[in-house]
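Thread: "does anyone have the structure for this chain?"

Original post by V.I.:
We have the sequence but no experimental structure in hand. Need at least a predicted one for the grant figures.
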Amino acid sequence: MDVPLSDIEVAGGPGLSEAIGRMRRNQVIREEGYDGEYGIIHLFEDSEKQAMGGQMALFQQEKHISPKQPDQAPRPKMIRKKKQKVVATEPVSPTDLILDPLNPEQKSAVLHPGSHVLVVAGPGTGKTMTLTHRIAYLIRIGIAKPEQVLALTFTRKAAREMEHRISKLLEGLTADEVHVSTFHGFCLEILRSEGDKIGLSPEFTLCPETDARSLAQEVLSESGEGKRVTGKFLKALPGMKAGTVLGQAAPQVENKLMSLFIRYQSTLRELGMLDLDDLEVETLRLFRDHPDIACDYGEKFPWVFVDEYQDTNLIQVELLKALIRTGKSQICVIGDPDQAIYGFRGADVGNFHRFGEDFPGAEKITLKRNYRSTKEILQGAAALMGKEKPLECQSANAAPVSFAACLTDSEEAEMIVEQVERLIGGTTYFSLDSGRVASHEGDLSLGFGDIGVLFRLNAQGDALEKALDRAGIPFIRSGETPLIARYPVNILWRFFQTLQYPDNPYYAKLYKQSLSEAAITKEQSDEAFETYGALSELIDRAITLHDFECSSEESIETLRRLKQLAANFEGNIETFLDTLSLERGIDHALVLGDRVSLMSIHAAKGLEWPVVFITGCEDQLMPCTLFGSRDEEEDRRLFYVGMTRARSRLILSHVKRRPLNGRVLTMHPSPFLDDIPKDILIPLERRGWKPRKKPHRQMKLF
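Reply from O.Q.:
Generated one for you, C-alpha cells below.
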C-alpha cells in the first residue's frame, strides 16, 4: 500500500501509477445510477484515456480494440470494449439489445407506430431506457435516419446519458449523428445560424443565470430599488419575456416591474448579450416571423423526442408545435406529472395534461412497473399523491418507512450520524466504545456513497455538514452551484471572456471582481497570453499564469471537470464559452469518492440511493411558506420526488425548533406525513440523545 508511485510507474507504466495515486487520494469518480440501473465507479474519463494513449495499453480490454475508421469521431464507446471480452466457442442464441430488456409496457412504447406518443413514466419505471430504446429501434429498422432525430432534454448530464445509451444500443456505428441537445443548446444553434433575420448579431454573447441575476440587481439598484423588489422582478422576468412574443401580458405584473424589464432588456442588448430565457423567446420569434425557417427545421428533424416533458414551459411547447406543424413530423415525449417540481423556473405541468390537445391524435402509454423502490416506499408515495394503486414493485426488499421526531436541528443531525454509523457498522472507535453502534451492526454491502441526505432549503445543510465532519464521516455537499461559479473555474472563465471579447468592458469588470473575491491582487494581462494550441493547453497556461492555490480536493475536481469539457472542443474558445454559459445549477456534477451525499431535493431529481434521509419534514418547509408564496401541490410533488429517490430504506425526520433566516422557529410535523399510512410509517429505532455540554468558561478576576 505504501509503494512509491515512481516505483509503480517503472513496474507498470504511468497509467497504473496515476490510477493508484487517484485511489489513494480517494479521487474515484462516481456516476450515480438512476432508472433502476446501477451507477458506475471509474478512475478516468474517456477523454483522459484517449489522451493517455499508449500509456493505457496495460489494461487488457484496451489492447484488442480495433482502430476506429478515419471518418469516425474519436469518441470511445463502452459497448465496444465489452464486446471484445466475449469469445464464442460455439453458436449462441442471438439477443436483441433493444427489445429483449423491455417489459410489455416499455415495448409497447418503443414499437408504437404512426402517431405522436405521450409516455407516462413514474419514478424508477425505466424512463430513459424507454426513450433511448425507441430512438435506437426506429433507426435500426430504417424508419428514421440518425440525422433526422432530434432529442431534447433539460440538462447536459441527461443529454450525455442519452447519447451514451443510444451509442451502446447501436454499437456506436450511427449514434454520433443523432442530435441530442438541451432546449437552450438547440435554440443557441438556431440563433447563431439564423438570428440575423430578426436583427440579432451573429456575435452575440450569452448571459448565464448567475450574470443575469447580477445584472438585474445592478439595473434595479440604479433605479433605486432594493433586494425585495429584485426577487419579485426575477420571478416575473420569464413571463414578461414570453409576453413579448406570445402577444399576451404577464398576469399581475406591476407597471414598475414592466419599466424595470425594459431597462434590463436594453442593458442586455447594449452589451450584445442574450440571457437563457432570450434564447427560447427569440427562437420562437424567429419561427413566427419566418415560418419558412421553422418549416426547414421541421423537415430536417421529422422525429422529435422530449425527455421530462412535465418540466416544459409555454415557449418550449410553442417551439415544438412550430416544428411539428409541417405535418411530416412525429413527436414522442416522456415524463411524469407527479414529478413536476420546477414551477418556480417557469415550468407548467399543464403542458403535460394538454399534450393531446397540442398534438392531436397522440397515443398515451403508461409505464407501471417500478424497478427501484420497496413496496412500502411505493405505497407511502402513492398515498401521499392520493393514488389508489401504487406503482408495481419489482424489488424483493422490504422495510417500513421510518420517522424520527427530534427537538432541534442539532439532534436531527446527530441522529443521522448515528444511523449512518449503524448502517456502515461504525466509523470510529468512539462509536463502538460508546455503545452507539454494536460491533455486529452494519450492512456489509453498504458504503458511504449509498446514502443520500436531502433537505428542502440549502440552509438546512449547514448543521448536517458540521455533524458529519465532526464524526469523521466523508461527505460531499452538492448544491445548485454551476461550474462557472466555483473556484478557480470562475476566474478562468472570466479571463477567457476578456480574451475572446476584449472590447466588452463588462467582462473586464467581472474579471477584476472575480480576482478581488479570491484575494488575488495581481491582474493578468491578456496581451502577453499566447492563445495557440488545444483548449486544455490554454487552460494549463492560464492556471500557471494566475498561480492558483489548488490544493483542495474541491478545486482539483472543479478543474478536472473543466478540462473534461474542454476535451470536446478543438480550440474553439467561443463555442467553449457558450457551453459554459449554458450550464445551470440543475446540471449535476459527478459525485467524487465514497461519500454521503448532502443536497436539496431539487438537486436530487434523477438520482437514487439505497438509503435516503429526508430532513425537515415540517410545516413551513413542507409545504414551504417561509417566503410568502405557497404552492402546496408542487411541494407535495417535491416530497414525492424525495421519497422515491430511496431504493431500500427511507427515513423521515422533523424537529420542534429550527434556526432559519436568523430566527429560531417553532415547527410542527408536515401535514404530508399524515397522508402516509400508519402501518407503513413507524418510529425509527434509535438511542437516546443528549445535547452537547457547553465548554466551561474560566471566570475572569477583573
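V.I.: this helps a lot. The CA atoms of residues 413 and 466 lie 8 Å apart.
O.Q.: and The radius of gyration is 26 Å.
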